[in-house]
Amino acid sequence: MNTLTAPLYALFSIPFYRLVVRSPLYRGFLYLLYLAGIATAIILLSLIFFAVPFMDKFMDWVKAEMPVITFSSEGISLNVPSPYTMTHPTLGPLITFDMTATDVDSGKMGNVNVFVTAKKVFVRQGPNEIRMYDLTPPAPPASGQGAVPAQPAVLDPDTAGQFYQTVKPWLILVVLFFFFV
Fold it and tell me: Which of 41, 58, 69, 77 could form a disulfide with 155 if both were Cys (CB 3.0 to 4.6 A apart)?
């Protein structure tokens, strides 16, 4: 039996297992490494042909629908009237931005999974469970004479697209690494 046929013989061959029992331990680890490599190659191909095109299409939709978001010490502001809901053509409404709301319950969230206010983000964790994340920055230290106020950060569709293009190869490598291990 050779390395190429071992995975096939492992499915049905009793003599193969008798041979394996007599083989040194390191050979078993080499077979394990070989099988992990084959499985990782299959995952890589499925990522390239299925997951990445889906992520690319989803990111194109995000760039087309996403408002310009400005983060400042007072909270979030948008360049579109509030409330604004990003609705995916097949997945439905995904996120609602309402800069006038302060607290959100499951009734106000409706059927979206993420609800963003000027100072908080609410994420649906289960049917009746909502987790809240505070967006207000911690209080700055006592300002001296040379303190410069923080400039607002802007997240626009182009910046989101650039971030996605930067993260995409690293995300694929991390998935492959953890799958292989």
Answer: 69
